[in-house]
Design brief:
Elements (H helix, E strand, L loop, with lengths): L2 E5 L4 E5 L2 E5 L3 H13 L2 E4 L10 H14 L17 E7 L7 H7 L8 E8 L7 H8 L4 E2 L3 E4 L7 H9 L1
Parallel strand pairs: 1-4, 1-5, 5-6, 6-7, 6-8
Antiparallel strand pairs: 2-3
The protein binds flavin mononucleotide.
The site of flavin mononucleotide has 21 residues, from helix 1, helix 2 and strand 6.
């Protein structure tokens, strides 16, 4: 069984329980690295060509506009082929209720038929939001398994939860 983690994560300023903090590694990336370590899955990070602002409020604004336009921001590198993988872990922060638009850019390029998809999200209270509906469309033909939802402020305590979810 081979797997890959396709994820988006943003370092910089972010909200933690009502307080702005600067983080060097994004919350979702922490979980992606646990999966790499525990399940031996490869890692693929989706990175926009134009980086999102490190300033939280500015980022919120850019992301809101992209969401409203249903934009497909260009990404630095596109993953083209996932045929060698059985399991695809898809990780993202909840942005405006769903996946960051750069994830749409990437996921729409891939053929998910026959894949097991395990989605995970980090968030500030909204969990998966409406992303389940979007994931169904983005991963046509996949068997979408139960997702894992982790509050951003809890990622460093979540290793055992991630391990149990991988084994489900
Ligand atoms: C642009 C933007 C939009 C967000 N929208 C939501 C939201 O709608 N609901 C929510 O619970 N959290 C929201 N958040 C919080 C993030 O989902 C949360 O901090 C997440 O853990 C960030 O992951 P990352 O560090 O991997 O990027 C938003 C954060 C940003 C920057």
């Amino acid at each position: 069984m081979s797997g890959i983690v396709i994820y988006f994560s943003r370092a910089g300023e972010n909200y933690f329980g009502g307080e702005l903090k600067n983080i060097e590694k994004g919350n979702t990336e922490v979980i992606a690295e646990y999966i790499h370590e525990i399940a031996g899955a490869d890692l693929f990070k989706v990175e926009p060509k134009v980086e999102y602002p490190s300033d939280y409020m500015k980022c919120i604004d850019v992301a809101k506009k992209e969401f409203a336009k249903n934009a497909r921001p260009e990404i630095k590198e596109e993953l083209e082929d996932i045929s060698v993988y059985d399991t695809v872990y898809i990780g993202f922060p909840n942005w405006w209720g769903t996946l960051p638009m750069a994830m749409f850019t990437q996921l729409e390029k891939l053929d998910f038929s026959g894949k097991a998809v395990k989605p995970f999200v980090t968030h500030e209270g909204s969990g998966f939001g409406t992303s389940n509906k979007d994931l169904k469309k983005l991963c046509t033909g996949a068997d979408i398994k139960k997702g894992l939802s982790i509050p951003g402020a809890k990622v460093y305590d979540a290793k055992n939860i991630v391990r149990a979810w991988i084994d489900e």
